[in-house]
Amino acid sequence: MSAQILVVTGTSTDIGKTVAVAAVAAAARAAGLQVGVCKAAQTGLAVDEPGDLADIRRLAGEIPTREPARFPEPLAPETAAARAGMAPVTLDAIVGAVAELAVDADLVLVEGAGGVLVRLAPDLTVLDVAVSLGADLLVVTDPGLGSLNHTELTTRAAEAAGAGVRGLVIGAWPAEPDLAMRCNIADLPRLTGAPIVATVPAGVGAMSEVDFRAAAPAWVDPRLFHSSPVDVPA
Length: 234
Description:
Rossmann fold; 37% helix; eight-stranded mixed beta sheet
């Protein structure tokens, strides 16, 4: 099975990663690609509560999704699993979920949890998932002050592990950006060596599916999707 795989991580939590995944998914669908989305591990929700994948489907439309693990407390997945007395998510479970999606998808987006080194399990990070899948990373970052340090640390960690960074995504670009934000648009690619491949306006998570899907292609550079697929283990 072959598909493009992008592992979506962030420089921190609460920077718009889920809405960014929805935007990339909607833009890819508009470009004619079949898309699947895997959430590596969902935390902070009960079994019957809608999570990040529900938000992505609400915005990008009904697309195939997988969620290998869910834990009730809003913590890093490793800690959330331990506190709940549950087994942590495994790399095999994540790879298996991606493989299922890749059967029918041209592009599989894998949303991590928090930053690139957040522990999904005691010996498993989001970066480990990307390396194991042979997938590039999309790094969602905040446009404001402090972003340069956080983003460069993230891309350096990826480089050290041998993972490629396909590009940066500005997670919530305001209608009236301040000076630091305007400077960061030039400085982020210069310091990280990664292009900005999407800029998602702030507040678009409240849009209707119709309006979101119509607008998303303007937020995402279509060259993001022009890459060779990778083989996904069955």
